[in-house]
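Today's session is about reading a structure prediction critically. Students often jump straight to the picture, but the first step is always the sequence itself: look for stretches that repeat, for charged clusters, for runs of hydrophobic residues. Only then move on to the predicted structure, which in these notes is written as discrete structure tokens rather than atom positions. Here is the chain we will use throughout the hour.
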Amino acid sequence: MALPQPEHHVHTVEEWATWEGSWELLRGEAVAMAPPNLEHQRVSFRLARALASALDAARHRAGGGDCEVFPAPCGLFLGEETALQPDLMVVCDPALKSARGIEGAPDLVVEVLSPSTARIDLLDKRRLYARAGVPEYLVVDPDRREAILLRLEGAHYAEAGRIPWGGLLELMGGRLLVPLPADEPPEG
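Below is the predicted structure for this chain, in token form.
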């Protein structure tokens, strides 16, 4: 295993696959991933559970469907110079699923913000996901206790709504209703 070498200006997915540690590759640039904190993991898990439950309910109503939730770490490959690990992805097209991960634009990408990587999620990844054609991008901010839903309009995202903690997310063009996790009371 290796680490990304600074003398390489543009890295490839092939190189990325050999690196030690947690890295993403954004248009050839190596970006270290922040270790997730407890709240980040708690929010991500609750949202994954809510998404999976909503997809199951929709599948039973409609009599089928291939949509699945994929939590990190699951590779998202957008070309030969971009390898990401979004916190959550919903993928409905079976052709995008491969042995190494998701090959192309998921139907929904969810990033739970961490202070050290928020700028990357809000700016860099937003542009990457839009360029790749990801229809919806949900940015969850545990500190502000809200989520921002972005929908692709042309080549850019437009804000479709700010949803407070405990509010209802209308995802996948409004076809999927998912509660945004609220704070759970302490046990005891």
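Discussion point for the tutorial: The first strand starts at residue 23 and ends at 26.
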